[in-house]
Amino acid sequence: MRQRNKPWAPEEIAAHPQYIVPEPSAHRGLWVEYFGNEKPLYVEVGSGKGRFVTGMAEQNPDVNMIGIEKFDSIILTGLERMKELDLPNVVMLKEDVNDINDIFTENEVDRFYINFTDPWPKNRHAKRRLTHEGFLQKYVELLKDGGEIHMKTDNRPLFEYSLQSFSEFGFTLQNISLDLHEDGLEGNVMTEYEEKFSRNGQPIYRLEAVWNDRSGR
Ligand code: SAH
């Protein structure tokens, strides 16, 4: 996602701790207390400008949404959206997904979303893909039994890579679509990238990967 230099971003973020939680590791294992309820916890990794997490939170008051985005200047747009909507069930974290196990503990997350993540097309960069087995290992340590990971992308090579990565890891795949907007999905919330790519007529690929502890890891 395009990043513009916004020198005021860190100060603006720090001024709104109710929307962009400072020191999220302090809430590790305690997100139920943070939100004050036991609604399912859905986490989007690489959430960009936060359109998906805020849209999901608005549409689904019975879940708590957390978006993780590592760049100040990008998350700032999410902050504006959260200020406008002022929803009780969504926050964003300015963090690197690599550190996700410092933020959540085991059995804390019901579902992860990975939307239009960077494809890192070169093989030697495969480890940086958010669906690389190194990341899957981190996610399953946090997912509840029966928890899910939902992915959307416009990038066919990344989608094929991810299908294989999830499958080899021991996830069960379901509801795979090679053209989401043609197939339709009830309650689909579009992300920034999804809006842009589907407007250009590009198909959107989607999958759901289900994790059962019985899978053996
Ligand atoms: N999900 C949004 C944005 C997709 S672009 C959408 O669909 O529109 C991918 C985003 O992931 C970028 O904003 C990038 O900064 C973020 N990202 C990539 N790797 C990350 C990481 N390791 N930790 C946190 N954010 C990451």
What does this structure look like?
This protein is an alpha/beta fold and 217 residues long. It has one domain: 3-Layer(aba) Sandwich (Rossmann fold), CATH 3.40.50.150. The chain contains 8 helices and 7 strands, in the order ααβαβαββαβαβααβ. Strands 3-2-1-4-5-7-6 form a 7-stranded mixed sheet, sandwiched between helices. The N and C termini lie far apart (34 Å). The model has no long low-confidence stretch (mean pLDDT 95).
Spatial order of the strands forming the largest sheet? 3-2-1-4-5-7-6
- Could you tell me the strand content as a percent range? 15-25%
Low-confidence stretches: none
Please give the oligomerization state of what you see.
Answer: single chain
Number of strands: 7
Main sheet overview: 7 strands, mixed
* Domains (count): 1
Which small compounds were modeled alongside the protein?
A: S-adenosyl-L-homocysteine
Assign the CATH superfamily. Answer: Vaccinia Virus protein VP39
Mean pLDDT: 95
Instruction: Sketch the topology as an H/E string, one letter per element.
Output: HHEHEHEEHEHEHHE
Number of helices: 8
Residues in helix, %: 25-40%
- Using only C-alpha atoms, the radius of gyration works out to 17 Å
- Gap between N and C termini: 34 Å
CATH-derived architecture: 3-Layer(aba) Sandwich
Give the C-level CATH assignment.
Alpha Beta
CATH topology (level 3) name: Rossmann fold
Approximate shape: globular
Helical/strand content category = alpha/beta
